[in-house]
Queue: 2 jobs
Job 1
Amino acid sequence: MGDATSPANALAVGDVIDVDGNVEFDALMEVNSAIAIEKEIAADTIGTLFAATQIHFLAFVEPCTLELVDLLSHYYEGIRKSAIDSLLEIVRTFYDLSDHEDWVPGANAVSEADLGSYNALLIVLR
């Protein structure tokens, strides 16, 4: 029986139907394709690209973020993980781009600069 992790291990129709004629849904849910792998790589690259190019990538952040959010419900776990990693990298990069103060132990938990950065992030993500 193929495990559908690569084209060489593709599932045949007989592999997903058991002796009684019932469909094995667990086997169908493990399907992976080259397109899914490409989406995973692309989703992983978006966050890295924004972190490297920073302000020069701002024009593309909103459409990329919307695509990454759409990928959060994908059936393939690798795509969901890469989308989450890139979304978190986008947040980290926005924080790096903001004029933030260095953290000081015992200081106020929220400063005006942090609120401004947070509000700017919310505006961009809308």
Job 2
Amino acid sequence: MVGVPGRFQVPRIGSADDYHPGLGGGRADPSGQGRIRRQGHGGDQVEFRNPVITGERLSPNVRTVRGEAMTIHFRRLSMTVAALLAAAAWLLGRVPSTATPVPMAKPPTADEVRKRLFATCWYETSKVVAGKEDPNGPLGWKFGPDEVENWQITGELVTDRMVGGATTDVSAKAWRLDIIRKGERGRVAVLPSLFKFDGDTLVWVTEFPGDGWYQQVDPNGHYKGRPTGFESTGRNRYAVYRLKPCEYLQTTPPR
């Protein structure tokens, strides 16, 4: 605290010119007449009048100080707004933009699937039975609505023709392919299986060769032993064929 003994004393903060009740600092005179007292330079008492109370016009010095204060205030406010906008832009930049969804390919119709399966012959490129590669030579296959035929594609040409044909059902998630074989005296056997196209490859899954034939046709295609997946293991003993398209009755795969 500074001042002259016996006089009204206030803390010394800055020069007298920047001291105004509208800007902070000083203490009002107890008389209530709007006077503000503050210790000036050299210990002199400086008296100000509050224009809000007295109705007096602000001096040029006071108006200048207030203008500078408002300028600083708006400058700080502008900096704050700019900082908030920059932060918002940074946050938006970190949020991954939602890409335009790629429309899903329309599934083929039953006629399109049947036409692709029946239009050409197929030759085996691999065959896995009960989880192991089959050592037997590859076969060629021709599927049709009236008969199914297979033959050895290496060595001596041996064919096996199954009159009855193949039926397809693509209404379920896993497509069904059933081979029908009509024997003498009207006996019918059915080999239920699954199939799908993987690019230009036909993937065909049956039960263990020789074990999957049923002697009675179920019109709904419900067979207990029908495969449920496209993987062959020692447990399920499925036979998984992978076949490529070929020319009808071609005896060797194309190079």
